[in-house]
From TrEMBL:
This is Aspartokinase. GO terms for molecular function: aspartate kinase activity. It is an enzyme of class 2 (transferase). Residues 2-276 form the Aspartate/glutamate/uridylate kinase domain. GO terms for cellular component: cytosol. Its EC number is 2.7.2.4. InterPro entries: AceGlu_kinase-like_sf, AKIII_YclM_N, Asp/Glu/Uridylate_kinase, Aspartate_kinase_CS. One of its GO terms (biological process) is homoserine biosynthetic process. Keywords: Kinase, Transferase. Belongs to the aspartokinase family. PANTHER family: ASPARTATE KINASE (PTHR21499), ASPARTOKINASE 3 (PTHR21499:SF67). Pfam families: AA_kinase.
Amino acid sequence: MKVVKFGGSSLASGVQVEKVYQIVSSDPERKIVVVSAPGKRYADDEKVTDLLISCAERCLKGEDTHDLVDTIVGRYQSIAEELHLADTIIRKVKDDLLSLLASDKTNPSAFIEAVKASGEDNNAKLVAACFKHKGLNAHYVSPKEAGLLVSNEPGNAQVLPESYERLYALRDQPGIIVFPGFFGYNTDGEVVTFSRSGSDITGSILANGVKADLYENFTDVDAVYAVNPHLVSHPREICELTYREMRELSYGGFSVFHDEALIPAFRVGIPVNVKNTNNPEAPGTRIVSERKIRTGRLSELLVTTASAAYTSANTS
């Protein structure tokens, strides 16, 4: 069984979601699909998560949010129309957002958490609808239903140990599970988000919970590189890294992979494969407990402290 996570750039448009469908349907081992909110379609575009945060903050100030609501819903509508999905999914997205904006605001932090997490939640519902429309046996599962419990630390949630036993039951569910990334629920039943790029964390937690054979993290580059490809032409791709090396790169501030996302998978020895949604046949970079391909010490991969390794930061 594989857990597969797709970042925001991989889900930014109907064309990209179609690629995700092709990737998932091509491998029957890809049973759990974790999705981010729609990301940027082009350089000057805005991520849906950022739009939702702005919308929540404006709502707390008592300011008008109609334009932002229309923009956010319009992003989902554009994707749905490209995929020829029924209008019902968009009505659900809009109703959900309006309901959240009208909800209790006595705890502003909890209010913002719930609104910004809706980006992933509604995208998971849309992706599940796309898969079903195309004939896959797929369904949406919420973190609450699955039992993903987290600490009450808004924007920095930590998974609670009892979650893993609950999540193991996902193995027995038939078909493909589409699961929203980025958030879980505290013991009071409130939404609490991980840090930004937290869908990476969700994927790793689920991989641990279901004891997956592999955690695939799809982004928008072919691999982790030995140098920043913006600074060097045709940089060398790194085929394998150890968990320790990848974490060292993350600690150094490199946009490689969400550091916390490595921990749940690492604890149970599940390998991680960083791959490209736009070029899924590329082998990508495999992150393992112990590297079989001897490429020298990590320090030998470093060209400068600022450009040691690179992968897209366009995930959420």
